[in-house]
Design a protein that fits this description.
heterodimer, A: mainly beta, 11 strands, B: mainly beta, 6-stranded mixed β-sheet, 5-stranded antiparallel β-sheet
């Protein structure tokens, strides 16, 4: 089992460029999440999904969009990248309430 | 609003020197408290879930305990391979929370020979 796979692992963008981060899980989990991790601020929730075709905003959604067209995939889009979006992005999934998350290995994004 | 505060921010121990990490939390009804380990450049790795005050869980040199206001991660006779950042998170019990976790900022542990 691969668990949660994130692509790409590293990316450098210029301000104003767009990109999509892909998260794929093979555990048949219903719930999926996108977090960003910044020094001193911990993990902050960007968007999440409680099932195929559903998405919802988290704590810091501005500047990001998401889609969950297939149960196993959760995509995070940056429409017009800004230096403030320089961060490490983690995708996670879980089967539901009371269960721990399985995290991907992260995408390190730098916006210059 | 759910809040999680971890202390200390950083801890340096010698091999074999036992200690504890603290996680204080406020949540409107606790569904579960989670501990994760994160190595540099990797995603968090699940360690434990605690559901009610008085509960304890162990894994090798780690033991997690829970009260109504805080959780402790006790590390007994640590080894250099225990060096990592340890994250604490809470999940609220209300319906409609979509199993969301609120994380603390972590304790960075370094164990030296």
């Amino acid at each position: 089992n691969a668990g949660v796979t994130q692509t790409p692992k590293f990316r450098v963008l210029k301000t104003g460029q767009s990109m999509t981060l892909l998260c794929a899980q093979d555990m048949n989990h219903e719930y999926m999440y996108w977090y960003r991790q910044d020094p001193g601020m911990g993990l902050r929730l960007i968007h999440y999904s409680v099932g195929e075709g559903t998405t919802a905003k988290g704590e810091v959604p501005d500047g990001y969009n998401v889609s969950r067209l297939k149960k196993q995939n959760f995509l995070l889009g940056l429409e017009s990248a800004a230096p403030s979006q320089t961060s490490v992005y983690f995708c996670a999934s879980t089967r539901g309430q009371g269960y721990g998350y399985t995290f991907g290995s992260g995408t390190r994004l730098t916006v210059v | 609003e759910d809040q999680v505060t971890q202390s200390p921010e950083a801890l340096r121990l010698q091999e074999g020197e036992s200690s504890s990490l603290n996680c204080s939390y406020t949540v409107s009804g606790l569904r579960g408290l989670f501990w994760y380990r994160q190595d540099p450049g990797k995603g968090p790795e699940f360690l434990f879930t605690l559901y009610s005050a008085g509960e304890e869980k162990e894994k090798e040199r780690l033991k997690a305990t829970l009260t109504k206001k805080e959780s402790f991660l006790h590390i007994t006779a640590p080894k250099p391979e225990d060096s990592a950042t340890y994250l604490c998170a809470v999940q609220a019990a209300q319906t409609g929370t979509a199993s969301k976790l609120t994380f603390g900022t972590g304790t960075r542990l370094q164990v030296t020979l």
